[in-house]
Every structure is written in C-alpha cells, then in structure tokens.
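Hey, can you fold this one?
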Amino acid sequence: MTRLLLSLLCLWCVTALGQSVPGKYAQPMRWYSPRSKVTSANMPAFETSDYTRTYRSWADLANQTQQDSAQIQLVVSLDSVGQQADWASLRRVKRVQQLTLQLPPLLTQSVADSLLAALANWPDLTTVSLAYRSDGSSTQPTISGAGSAGLKQIRRLMLSSANGSALTGVRLFSQAPGIQELALNSIRREDDVVNMGNALTQYRQLRTLHVYGITPKIDLAPLLATLPQLTALQLTNVDQSGTALTQLLTQLPNLRSLSIGAQRNGESLSGLSLKSLGKLDSLGLTLIRQTPVSADSLLGGLRSLRSVSLHGVALSSLDWMADNPDLHAVSLQEGGLPPLTRSLSQLTHLSRLTIESFDTLGQFPEKLTTLPRLRALSIRGGRLGTLPPSLGNLTSLTALTLNNGRLRTVPAELGKLTALTELDLGSNQLTDLPAAVCQLPQLRRLTLANNQLQALPRSLGQLRGLTDLYVARNKLTTLPAELGLCRNLRILMADENPLTSLPDAIGKLDSLRTLHLARTRLLALPNTIGQLTALRNLTLSGGSLRNVPESIGDCRQLTYLQLTDSTLTGLPASFGKLLNLNQLSLGLPHLTALPASFAQLTKVTYLWLNVPDLLALPENLGALTQLNTLHVISRRLIGLPNSVGRLSALRHLQLDGTIDPETNKPAGQLLQLPDSVVYCKNLTTLSVHHQVNFDGADAIRKTTRLPKLATLDLTQCGIGDLADINWKEVPLRSLSLQQNNLRDVPEAILEAPQLTTINLVYNHQLPRAFNRPFWRKEELRVAFVESRLGGAPVADKKPDATLMRAFLSAGFRERQQRNWGEAFAALDNAVLVAPDSLKAVPLSLRAELRLARKDYTLAITDFEQALAAMDKLTQQVLERAGMPAADPMNRVSALWTQLGIARAGAGQHERALTDLDKALQLLPASEAMNLLRAHTTTQKARSLASLRRIADAQASLLKAADVYAAITYAGPSERLTEVELALLANQPARAAAVLEQIRKQTPNLSDYRGGYTTLFDYLKACVDVLTNATTPAQAPITLAEQQRKRPEKIYNWSFDLMETFLPQIGLPSDKVAALTELTNLTKRQAAVVD
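Sure. Predicted structure:
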C-alpha cells in the first residue's frame, strides 16, 4: 500500500487549469497572455513572436491591441484583480475572437457583472473557455447571468467542470442568446448534473454538446432531459456501460450527429444500441474495447447514416453498410475487418472508404470493388500482399491509398483507373514501378516513398499532369531524364536515396517549387539547376557535394535554402543573386569564408550557419536589415562586424563556439561583443555558448542599452567575475551563467528590476549556496543571507513572508536531494523568519519532514505548535503572502492525521486514535479528500491492531478499502492498496474481484513506473493461497519464477501493514507462513530509499 504522508505544501499549491479550444479561422490569430512571473531556471523567459504576445496589465493589453490588426485569442485571469480591476482598460481591448477566462476561487456578482459588461464591447468574440481556480471546498455564491443578455456574438462556450466550476460558467452566460455549442470537461458530482440541467433550460439555441470525462457514477439523464433540441452530441473519455449509454440516448430523438470516445481501460460498450436515433446521419465511435460488438445491436435499425467512423470497434459484420443506402463516407480503424456477405452495389452515394491498421487483413476485400461511385479508397496497414484484378472495376476512383502493407507489385488493371488523381503506394515492398502506374492520364500526386525501388521507369515522363512526386527512402541512384517531361511537377521529394547525379533534364521542370535531396550521395548539381525559375524551396545534404554551379543564382524565386553536410569549400559568387531568400541554413564544415555577395541577401530573416572554421562574418552583414534570427556555430569566429548594429529587426542572436571532441572543453575564440550590438534595439534573446575566454561582464553591461532583451545565456564561456555592472539598469528577466568559472556573485545583482531566474549551476568555485539555478530572485537573496551567516540561524531578521517562502523553497529542494541536514536548516530558518500569521506553514512542513525521518517526538511537538498557530492562518493571509489559498479545514484535518501517525510511531496509540478520529471529523465530504480519508482510516486500523483490537482494526481496514474504491480516477497504487486492505480484512473474494477489475481496466501495468506488475503478481499469489487456488507450498515457487522472468523495482510501497496484521487475523499457520514468504520475496524488489 502506498504510504501517503501528505505534504501541506501540496495542499496549498493545488490549482485548476483551463485550456481554450481554438477554432478554425481564415486568418492566423495572435495569442495574448499575462506575462509570466516565474520562468524556468534553465529555460529562457517566454518570448513573444508573430503569433504570441504577453501583457503586463490590462491597460498594456488594450494599448497593444489598439495597434494590432490581427484577430486575437486572449487569456485573462481574474485571480487577483477583484474589485480593483481596471475594467475600463479591459473594455478597450480590440478584436478578441477567443477568450480563456481564469476565474478566482470566489466570484462575486459585482465582478461577474463588470466582466460581462467588458465583454459586451467585443463584437468579434465567438468563443469563451472558462477555467476556475479552486480546491473545491469554498462555497461559490449563485451567480446571475442577466448581464450576458447583450452578448449576442458568442457561439461557443467551453467550461472546465472540476469542482463545480462549470455550473458557475453555465449560470454566468445563461442569458447569452446566441450560444449554439457547449463543452463540459469532467463532470464529477451528481448534484452538478441536476443543477446544470436546470440552468441549461435558458440555452434555447444550443444544438451541440460536448462532454469530456463521464464516470460510471455520473448520470447525465437530468442534464440531457432539458436539451431535447440537441442535434449533435460528443462524449469523450467515457467510462460507462453500453447499456447505460443506450438508455441515455433515448432522450435525444432529434440527434443527427453522435460521437463517443470510450476510455481505453474503462467500461466495455458492448450492449450499446443506437436504434432509437432514427434521424442519426453522422456517427463516430472511438477507442472502444476490442470485444466484438454485434453490428445488429449497435447499428441495427439505422437507415439514414451518411458518415460513419469506427475506431477500435470489433464489429461482427459489415452488412449494416448495405442497410444505409445514403452512406457517403465510412472509416474503419483498428477493430478487425469482418467478412462482407452482401453486395454493396446499391451504395450509390458512398464516395469515401477508409480501412486502417487491420493486421488480419491479408487479402483485398473483393466485394469493395462492387461500389459503383467510390471516389476515395484508403487501406493502410495490415498484411496486404496482392491486389485482385477486379480493382480495375473501381473506375470512379480519384484517390487510392494502399500503404504500410506488403505489396511487391500491383496488377496491370490499375491502369484502368483513369480518373485517379492521387495514388499512394508508400511504405510497401515495391522493387520497381509497374508500367500501369504510368498509364494514368489524370494522375497529379504519386507517393512511392519508403519502398525498395532501385530505378524509376522512363515511362514516368508520360504523366504530364503530375504535380507531386514522393520517392524518398528508396534505393534510387539516379532519376530518369524523362522526368523532365513532367512540366507541371511542383514538388519532388527524393530524400534518403543513394543518388549520385541528377539528369540535365531536371532543368526543364520550370514549375518545380520544392526540391528535397537530403541525405543523398550527390557529387554535383547539373548546370541546368538554374533553369528552375519557379523553385522556392531547396534542401541539399549528403556529404559528397563538391560544388554548387554558378547557375544557382538564376533561381531568383528561391526563399528557403538548406545546404548541409557537404565537402564544399566555397560558395559561388552568384549566391548573392538569390534576392528573395528568406531562410538560409548552411552546415558546411570545410567552408572558411562567405562570399562578398552574401550581404545582398537583404530579405533573409533566418540565418543558421554551422561553419566550424569560419573566421569572420562579412563586414557588410548589417545590410541584412530584415534579419530576425542569427545563429552562428564556429570555433574560430573571433568577433562580429560592427555593422551588426544595423540589424534593426534582429530578435534572436546565438553564437556557439562548439566543444572540442578530444578535450571536451569549449573551443570558441570569441572574446567580446562589438559595441554596436547595443543598437539592436529589438533583441530579445542573446546566447553565447562554449567560448574559451569570453567577456561576460561586458556583455551584461551592454544589455543596459538593449531595452527589450529578456534572456541572456552565457553558458560555458570562461567567465570569472561580474565586476563593474550597474545591475539597476539591466533589463533581463532570465540570466544563465552556468558552467563558468565564477568565484563570487555580486549582491547588487538583486537590484536588477525584472530579473526572475538566475542559473549559476556548475560554477564549482562558488559557495554551495550559489551553485544552483534560482527560480525566483528571493531564493538568491536567501543564498546571500546563508552565505553571510555561514548557515547560522537568522534570528536577527525581522518576520518576512517573502524570506520565509524562499527558505521553504530551499528546504523543499534540499529534501528532494535528500540533503536532510540542509533541509532542516532551511526549515528552521523559515520558522524563525515567519510572521506569526504564517508560522503554521513552516512548522507543519518541518513536522512532516521529522515524521518522514521517524523523529517522532520532535514531530509531535511541531505538529502541536502548527495546530495551535492555525487559527491565525486564513485564506486572506495566504493570498497576501502570495501563496495559493486552500480551505483551512482541509489543512487542519491533514495536520491531525499526521499528528496521529507521529503519536503511533512513538507508541502513543490511544492518543493517536483520538487525533485520527479528530481528523476524520474535520474532513469535508468532498471527493477530493478521499485519498486523505482513506489514509487516515488505514492509520487508525494500524493503531487499533497495535492495541490488539483486531475486529475493530479489520472493520477500519474495510472502511478504508471502501473509500479507495470510491476514488473516481484511482491509479494502480490505489487499486492495489484496496486489494491489500481486503486481504488483511480476511475478505479474499473481494480482493480477487478487485484484481480482476485491475486486469481488465489496466492490462499494461508495466507501462506505469512503480513496480505495479510485481505487486499485482504478489497480491494475486496471496489471494490464490487464501482461496485455495494454489497450495501454500507452490505459491512462493511460482512467484519467485515470475519475478525472475520479470524483475522490476518497486517504489513507494511499504510492507509493514501486511507484516503487522498477518499474524493477528486468524489464518492457519501454513497460510501465514506462505504469505510471509511471499512478502519477503517481494520486499527484495523494493527500491531502497533513504
């Protein structure tokens, strides 16, 4: 059983996150979100781009959107604004089309009304996604949505249902007259269903409902009963029986579209029947278990289906297709393909059929060739090795996909499919291209990638209408000259072939826009490459290319060029003629200089140069005034040209000196950034890596004149000091100085006004307090305090909530690293500097650590002091301190549980029972607290057993097992714990039933790290002994063999409960001996953790 010592820090850090669901729009959208206050210690701060923006305040947001012409997807948090919100600025925001709202734990009516009034000013708003930050214990007042009556523009509403937040959202927008689509995420409470059903009566235009996450305990009937007008229903991640869903669907007589996605390990949907949905024309069933489903019971009676998608549904037959003459599209994936016993010739409307991933499909289903109007046929996967001649009967086909099979050839009758425009024979075993393929006059797109083709036929030139040709990953050594006759070809993908040459005729492809020749063996390019006047995208790599012809400069429309891994020693002078080049990547290990004409590429926005021996960049580099990103990898580069200051559009600059492979040390020779870099006013990220002796302090000083620079990364640059820097003017939010030679850090670094993350890891000469990443500036401030005091207590410090939080963070980090002394020292300091109103926080965390270290006496003292201080700890106090607020009753009950555990550890079992009963009395009825309730009840059983009250102890174990069984989203640990408790309560039948349920619902326990397969085998062996399914003598032998074949470490599982109870529950001695041996065998697999 997992031994859960709940961390109060975890209780205080629970948040519910919402996620918007983007729609499809004709133009790209811009995403605006609040500027993050905390960034990763080893990741740069969040960067804006053409598609993303951040804002500091609503006024800043309004000003930005006033100048932005794009449609906007916006994230707005009301978590901390309340009555003081700048509603006037929010009303000024423009062009918001999608909104994600993060609501506070307690949404007041006044805030709700102000919010709705602001949204009324956004005429483009069509989609609202609502998230709600709460621990589920706060009582949310009933919100009136009268103010939403003016929101006629909103069409889609998406709500997170965790902890009842969906009900708040439904009420908030209940008067919005135009809402047609509603999405509900994870309804977990029965009363929410009833209340939501009542509220949804106001949604008279609602036609589409999407519900995500339906458990067996949730009955949607009260909700759906209020929505008879629904025409589309989507149920995702469903864990309900087919019978229950059948009854549910009878309430929706007008349903035309239905989609059901079952949990992979949830209830089987066998028994599901859709006969009551007489108007249904669109059906999608996904991830239903592989138990064969009767097609008659599932689809029998449906006669108006037009579109069907079945994913993972093992149907008993396909004859239902013949009963739906209006079928237009059918998709069958991963469920097994039953035989067709009836002709499909009457399906005159069926135009698209997809059959995918059926390993049992070894032959082409010939009855498919009777479909008279089939236009698109896709068969993917399986063991399809041959095709019947009757394939030629499908003369209406325009698209045929037969990939991921075992085809070695195709029949000549394929040539009869003269209407084909798309043919995909990729990922088969074709060794040559049949002549029949070259007889398809309408063919536009031909995919032959990932086969065994050694040559393409000369007759390929007959495909005069061909626009796309994919022949990557074959064995082609050349391409036929006749390919030049395909004058309409726009895309040629021939990557990963042993090509050594290209025909001169390739120059005739004057429509070619994309040419990919990556990882080939080309020795040269033909001069005719310059005749590709329409070429936009060119990729060349392979290691053997000796030259690029001057004619490349005639490809004037080229916008993307990647040229890597070749033996090139130079680039042609004509390179500068590629005036439309936008993105350029050069990976040329033998190049030493760029051509002088390089600076003529004035439209380049992205430049990546991996040129290890490059000595210098062109002096006129500044002419690339549209350059946005510059990344140079060179071990010999000694500087940047002064003209870099003219790169006014530059946002990202990275200079990498590489690592010497022999010494594993930096090889870069860059010494300093040019003074002119300060004129790159739009620079947001600057990275310099792997330099021998780079002047990092000078680089930081120069950032003071770069107002938009947010991230500076100077990794492994030989930096020894940070002297003479005016940190007050440094604009950075993230600074990485890892792997340098720093000996000290100036305390003035704390004066950098926006700096939040500082990474100093692997500066081994620094004091230990500094040699790590800092997530917040306050943590670095603590490091200075620790360094000055030499680890002594900070008793002279005044109470300081910020300092307390930093010490707590340091203690948590040291605990993770199992540095127990340092962890206790940090927590001691946190207690000393904590204000009286927050004293309960560090006291409880120190008590928890002492409990984990089995220092029961001191743990009891700390828990008692923490409980005494809890009266001063309120939600308001936590919020003012910047800590997530949770319900005080939850925190108090957790403390009483832990105090009871500590007393039991000290042998004070009677007092422990009193504490544990107190915890259970204080625990709210919320399902969110079930794990703590189960743990507390189990601990009570342990103390009862120690007092020899075995009957009471077993009754307590059963109560705990019942609570574990009631956890909706229980994982393997909780389910296996339920098995162990049932065993110790001497109920092996119940234990066996739970094991069977685990086997069905979680067939791949080995996918979960923790040793759950071994634990399953162990508990199954115990059950088998108690139920006489095996003998006490045989069980250990069998288990030992299982563990030998499948060794697996066990984590977070203790066997002491089994060892405590086993001798006391009245089992025969031979069975006690067998279970003891089984336990000892399995304990050997447990990971030893200090």
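The radius of gyration is 35 Å. Let me know if you want another pass with a different chain boundary.
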